[in-house]
Structure formats: C-alpha cells, structure tokens
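Thread: "does anyone have the structure for this chain?"

Original post by V.I.:
We have the sequence but no experimental structure in hand. Need at least a predicted one for the grant figures.
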Amino acid sequence: MQPTLTQGELLIRPLREDDFDALWAISSDPLLWEQHPSNT
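Reply from O.Q.:
Generated one for you, tokens below.
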C-alpha cells in the first residue's frame, strides 16, 4: 500500500491505470530523452 500525500494544491499519489496514456505520450517525446545519458 502506498500513501497519498497532500499539502495545499500539491497532490502526490501512486500511479493509476488511467495515468498510462499520458505517461506514454510524454515518454514518446524525443525532447524528453535528448539529454539522457544513454540517448544513443
């Protein structure tokens, strides 16, 4: 079981199944990986 943390407008929670489309979209952006040490 993972906690959900809140403070003011900040919310940190465990990933849920409905998060995966957004994660896939951002991880498909080459600019995100441009400076990753293993970008070859």
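V.I.: this helps a lot. The helical segments are 20-27, 30-33.
O.Q.: and The mean pLDDT is 91.
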